[in-house]
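Lab notebook, bench 4. The sequencing result for the construct came back, and we need a structural model before the next group meeting so we can plan mutations. Quick request posted to the team channel:

Model the 3D structure of this chain.
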Amino acid sequence: MNVIILALGSNRNRRKNIRQAQQFLRNLLPDIIFTKTIKTDAIGSNTPLPFFYNCMAKATTSLPLAEVQQQLRNIETTMGDSHESHQKGIVVIDIDLLAYGSQQFKADDWKRSYIKELAEEF
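Done. Here's the predicted structure in token form:
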């Protein structure tokens, strides 16, 4: 079993999309736990929407890394997120894999103050 850590964010229909993503993730990862959801300022200038809702999640899985990554992309796609919407600054849902077992990803994300704050809940 591998411990995984995820970061979720949305700047469109924020509450609804975070809750829906959490439900999809509960179906995939039954032991998943979530942090509180917080409001954060948008990072970067390419967004017409000024803030996000963000939370983090922690779970264990026996799925291989590639399968976890594919399942996360499937959830994003199912919820209507796309590369095109991101280019317009609209993020329906973003689910980033920050850690899988001993591997860490997205080093810059780990430096963000809200990630540090939320990770303390684990």
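Residues 14-28 form the longest helix (15 residues).
Will bring this to the meeting.
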